[in-house]
Design a protein that fits this description.
single chain, 28% strand, elongated
């Protein structure tokens, strides 16, 4: 099941903040508890060859080398901005990737660079052998929509833990007191620290109403756009893309 794709770079912002100060939406305070919405956590791809491929992709992006990029795009590349595949099968697969990600300008290459750095990927339930990044979780969309309405928030204000039991600390320090632990449920992302020394933490609000800090790499934003991969006989390839603008 897929939900509310909103863009990788925008989602990593997680919440509407100015500097380190949170701009809260009306009716939902930082210390307010909320209903827990369970999620089925993704099974993460753990493959050293995939990590090597991401490094290869990062080098291609750094050079903006379209010829090399073409070699790592699968012949069956799909592009699904909403519900259906609109990839033009009459053109080279890389042309569809260029259009989907907007690689005709610098912002598109920056987006591809962000995907190359993304360490999490999970299996696409509808396509055998395809893994999409960032990793996706499954949850009840109606329950999530109800939570967003009750808290006057949007999907981009929420995330999910990569595993159960993640410790929430009172301050953005590894030795700060543990005040809560995350279960397999949606979690409100309040802000990311703007201080250089605290970039490894993200500020969250737990269902019990506790405000604290979790390791930034342990909480993923709600699923937005995803770049997908598949392993062929000659190595990993970019298999497709969920998201993008059709104009």
């Amino acid at each position: 099941m897929r939900h509310l794709r909103a863009g990788l770079l925008a989602l990593t912002m997680a919440a509407a903040c100015l500097g380190a100060a949170l701009i809260c939406r009306p009716g939902f305070g930082q210390g307010q508890a909320y209903k827990s919405v369970p999620v089925t956590l993704p099974t993460l791809l753990r493959d050293a060859s995939f990590d090597a491929f991401r490094q290869q992709l990062a080098r291609i992006v750094q050079k903006k080398d379209r010829a090399e990029l073409a070699r790592v795009v699968a012949a069956s590349f799909f592009w699904i901005p909403e519900e259906s595949d609109i990839a033009d099968k009459s053109v080279p697969p890389v042309d569809n990737l260029v259009k989907a990600l907007g690689l005709d300008d610098a912002i598109g290459w920056e987006s591809l660079a962000a995907y190359a750095e993304e360490r999490t990927a999970s299996a696409d339930p509808q396509r055998s052998g395809v893994f999409c990044a960032p990793a996706d979780a499954v949850f009840d969309q109606n329950a999530a929509d109800g939570l967003f309405d009750e808290t006057h928030t949007e999907a981009a204000d929420w995330g999910f833990p990569l595993r159960e039991g993640i410790e929430i600390r009172a301050d953005a320090k590894p030795n700060a007191a543990v005040i809560d632990r995350l279960g397999a449920h949606l979690v409100r992302i309040l802000s990311e620290s703007s201080a250089a020394e605290n970039e490894t933490f993200v500020k969250v609000l737990t269902p019990l109403g506790n405000v604290g800090f979790a390791p930034a790499d342990s909480v993923l934003p709600m699923p937005g756009e995803q770049l997908c991969y598949m392993k062929e006989t000659d190595g990993w390839k970019i298999a497709g893309f969920f998201g993008g603008e059709t104009n």
